[in-house]
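for the recovery benchmark. tokens below, seq after
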């Protein structure tokens, strides 16, 4: 089944199937409420909101270190000031890129999550709750509306959707507050 629940074999579905077979990685519902996430040791490191895009949480230090090379690839969008990157899934090479970066995301995410309280890196552990671009409002309202309504509608009434940016709830398909 595709990551978007459509039943097809999308690139995102292949990523979800491949990575969930890795030891310690599981498919879960994305914290933002849209799509599937892949988690390692309880830390969500990849979100698959649609069959055509993957978001990976690389953590801020990794994005700072690898950002130029990632951006130069032409396949990756880096969320400004964030810990998440987006990869458009158009080809099998894009799938291979996400699978390769998944190990980096898992290592970085699990390392930060395992940081003992009281250390200088504790602030980095708190940032693990940083939202993906969807939850942080990084998507235009029309694209967000398409994601929410694709596949039968929102997983919860829009008036109860806690992560929509203010002002985004109005004008979306479905009940609004």
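predicted aa per position
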């Amino acid at each position: 089944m595709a990551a978007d629940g459509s039943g097809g074999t999308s690139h995102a579905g292949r990523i979800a199937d491949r990575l969930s077979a890795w030891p310690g990685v599981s498919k879960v519902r994305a914290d933002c409420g849209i799509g599937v996430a892949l988690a390692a040791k309880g830390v969500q490191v990849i979100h698959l909101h649609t069959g055509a895009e993957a978001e990976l949480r690389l953590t801020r230090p990794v994005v700072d270190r690898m950002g130029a090379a990632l951006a130069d690839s032409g396949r990756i969008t880096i969320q400004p000031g964030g810990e998440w990157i987006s990869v458009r899934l158009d080809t099998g090479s894009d799938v291979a890129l996400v699978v390769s970066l998944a190990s980096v995301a898992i290592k970085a995410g699990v390392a930060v999550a395992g940081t003992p309280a009281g250390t200088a890196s504790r602030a980095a552990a708190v940032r693990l709750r940083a939202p993906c671009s969807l939850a942080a409002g990084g998507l235009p309202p029309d694209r967000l509306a398409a994601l929410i309504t694709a596949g039968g509608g929102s997983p919860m009434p829009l008036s109860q959707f806690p992560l929509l940016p203010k002002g985004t709830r109005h004008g979306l398909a479905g009940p609004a507050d």
